[in-house]
Amino acid sequence: MRLRHQTTAMALALMALGAPVWADIEAAKAFLDAEIGDMSVLDRAGQEAELQWFIDAAKPYAGMDIKVVSETIGTHEYEAKVLAPAFTAITGIKVTHDLIGEGDVVEKLQTQMQSGENIYDAYINDSDLIGTHWRYKQARNLTDWMAGDGAAVTNPNLDLADFIGISFTTGPDGKLYQLPDQQFANLYWFRYDWFNDQKTKDDFKAKYGYDLGVPVNWSAYEDIAEFFTGRDMSYMGGPTSVWGNMDYGKKDPSLGWRYTDAWMSMAGMGDKGEPNGLPVDEWGIRVNENSQPVGSCVARGGATNDAAAVYAVTKAIEWLQKYTPPEAAGMTFGEAGPVPAQGAIAQQMFWYTAFTAASVVEGTPVMNADGTPKWRMAPSPHGAYWSEGTKIGYQDAGSWTLMESTPVDRAQAAWLYAQFVTSKTVDVKKSHVGLTFIRESTIQHQSFTDRAPKLGGLVEFYRSPARVQWSPTGTNIPDYPKLAQLWWQNIGDAMSGAKTPQEALDSLCAEQEAVLIRLEKSGVQGDLGPKMNEEVDPQVWLDAPGAPVAKLENEKPMGETIAYDELIKSWQ
Fold first, then answer.
1. Among 61, 151, 330, 430, which is least packed by CB within 10 angstroms?
2. Between β-strands 376-378 and 347-352, what pairing exists: parallel, antiparallel or unpaired?
3. Element spanning 510, H or E
4. Cβ-based neighbours of 514, under 8 Å, separated by 6 or more
């Protein structure tokens, strides 16, 4: 199985054909030989037929230079370094695929929205912006695009039903606004080898009175964090002192994502609903029956500062201070992600599967000699305020977005590239490199059945019905770029101790409402924009069913765990 990029071999093969190669199936065949082989759900004839379609559809755009942008993760590096040059050689459309920070992608997109200047011909930006795109109408509605200006350049083999994240990129109007390119979930990560050791299990049960296993609730997570912190695991070949939790706390944009990316709903803040809580979502923003935001603070029916939200932030800070390496407080998302693979972390509740590839590198302390991992991933536990049907986890869905400000011919050429890098021809190979699944057919491919034992539960999760409960930010959020920046600044104040969690969340919800009020007054989003509730005594909303909620008398019920192997059986 070829899992590494064979960039050099492919480049040599394409160069041997002479460059540039416009509308030439020989360039496509060279790419398939050098890079794809049998790593595709299509047989060789199917691959060649699909690439012949790209060759024919691209003829009017041959020689055009287009620019696209994405955040810097392994999947997009593969696209930029391997798939973009191949697409250029096959179609004659020259693609510059820029890789920048996630925050920078949002900033560029925001600038293009505000100025109307065509900075990029296509963006891979998170489907977290679905509410923004649906309301502002500055992103092309792909449903109408594929039937109109994009019809001649829409792959008849695109197969939208095969994409597992289409519900995340569809607006309340039923229209598709973005095409998923990569997806990863935040799950619970733990040292399977430590949890299955008899001495470790006996010691845990003697202290806490129940079995060590995958925590079902936050009480068990906290007990396990306390149990492992400072524990000498050298009897299992581990360090003489380990940590029971991993997290990050630097005042940085990624600190906000850690909370908007479903930490609050994992605690139990917000209403029931899939893919997001309704009418109150995991940001604590309430919408009315017309999907118009009406409030964020409890006094307007929101939940951003209710008891469940305060509990969520309080626990995160407490665990960061008590059970986590001290340097984590100064780390960002990207810096903290690889730390569990270094071998001194027992568990992490909030771990992105995007770090799987880095955690299965041969020779790291968390890998066995036979290539299987010493760790596993599982659903994250839920907090004291959570109830069945409430969102339990986040799934990132980086998705292709075409802006209305991009000239039609440039959008058409970029749409071809977007479909090429998500095509059935290349998706299995791309998924082996980045481990960020977007297609059901890829997940079910035999090569992933073969590789599953070496991926710590990733394949089992994506083949299970559980995956639908993990979703990105939904349509309650009318302006993601403006609102997201409020989170890290206010949560950062709580992290630093400058404010209590309650004070920080009171400030956050008030600032969110200030943005919502400005949007309402401006009328820029028309009938889709906010229509704010009047403020009332918060008790009125606390007494009403659903979110927001009042403080529980007991925020730490008995710990509950489940054996990992039993959990996996339930998925099957």
1. 151
2. unpaired
3. helix 501-522
4. none
CA 188 to chain centre: 14
Quote the pLDDT of residue 1: 35
Residues 211 and 95 both lie in one domain:
no
Q: Output the CA–CA distances (angstroms, integers) from residue 511 to 81, 305, 515, 541, in the order listed.
A: 41, 12, 7, 20
Q: By residue range, what is the domain housing residue 361? A: 185-244+336-385+557-571
Assess if residue 132 is contained within a domain. yes
User: Of 333, 349, 284, 278, whose CA–CA distance to 486 is shortest?
Assistant: 284
170 and 25 co-located in one domain: yes
How far apart, in Å, are the Cα atoms of 62 and each of 66, 224, 296?
11, 59, 50
Q: How far apart are CA 445 and CA 422, in angstroms?
A: 15
Residue 13: the pLDDT is: 47
**At a CB cut-off of 8 Å and minimum separation 6, what does 265 contact?**
277, 281, 282, 386, 390, 391, 392
Q: Which residues of the chain have pLDDT under 50?
A: 1-9, 11-22
**Torsion 360-361-363-366 (CA) sign:** negative
Of 549, 506, 509, nearest in space to 533 by CA: 509
Using the 8-state DSSP alphabet, how is residue 392 labeled? -
pLDDT at residue number 426:
98
DSSP β-ladder status, 94-100 and 65-71: parallel
Count of residues in the chain:
572
Residue 482 tokens read as 């403006």
The predicted structure's pLDDT at residue 334: 85
SS (H, E, C) 434-460: HCCCCEHHHHCCHHHHHHHHHCCCHHH
Cβ-Cβ contacts under 8 Å for 419 (sequence gap 6 or more): 54, 154, 155, 158, 179
**Residue 562 — φ and ψ, nearest 5°?**
-140, 145
Do 18 and 104 sit in the same domain of this protein? yes
Q: How many helices (H) and strands (E) does the chain have?
A: 25, 11
Determine contact, residues 142/179, Cβ cutoff 8 Å.
yes
CB 561 within 8 A of CB 214: yes
- Are 163 and 399 within 8 A, CB to CB? no
Same domain, 200 and 102: no
Q: Give the C-alpha separation, 145 to 400, whole Å.
A: 13
Look at the chain and report how many structural domains it folds into: 2
Separation of alpha carbons 377 and 565, rounded Å: 12
pLDDT at 23: 52
Of residues 516, 524, 483, the one with CA closest to residue 138: 524
Q: For the segment 23-50, what is each residue's pLDDT rounded down to a tens digit?
A: 579 999 999 999 999 999 999 999 999 9
Question: H helices within 32-160, ranges in order?
Answer: 44-58, 74-78, 84-91, 102-115, 130-136, 142-147
